[in-house]
Amino acid sequence: MAECIFCGIVEGSIPSKKVYEDEHVVAFHDISPAAPVHLLVIPKKHIASIQEVGEEDAVTMGRIFSAINHLAQEFGLSEKGFRIVNNCGQEGGQTVFHLHFHLLGGRQLTWPPG
């Protein structure tokens, strides 16, 4: 998708501070961090939202959560905890319509987020 910013990051035409990449997943620093560690973990395949995930995406989804676990360990979040957030749809707060998960940590997180 030519107009998708995350597809541009996957392709390398839009710069990002990548911290992880494999054949299914890319992870990079969020440009507007809400916590000391704020990474975005995305599939390389364009999937607009969690509502479009199908059975054919099972391997990709597994790799996303494996990457999140790896990154939580790498960034020192595993011991004290972290948050994983996925916003779905306009009313759910989704602003980029390419499936992505926010990995947040490095401080005490509150609920509701704010």
From TrEMBL:
Record protein name field: Histidine triad nucleotide-binding protein
PROSITE patterns per UniProt: HIT_1 (PS00892), HIT_2 (PS51084)
All residue ranges annotated as the HIT domain in the record: 5-114
Motif Histidine triad motif, residue numbers: 98-102
CDD domains reported for this sequence: PKCI_related (cd01276)
Active-site residues, Swiss-Prot/TrEMBL: H100
Pfam family, one: HIT
Annotated source species: Marinithermofilum abyssi
GO molecular function: catalytic activity
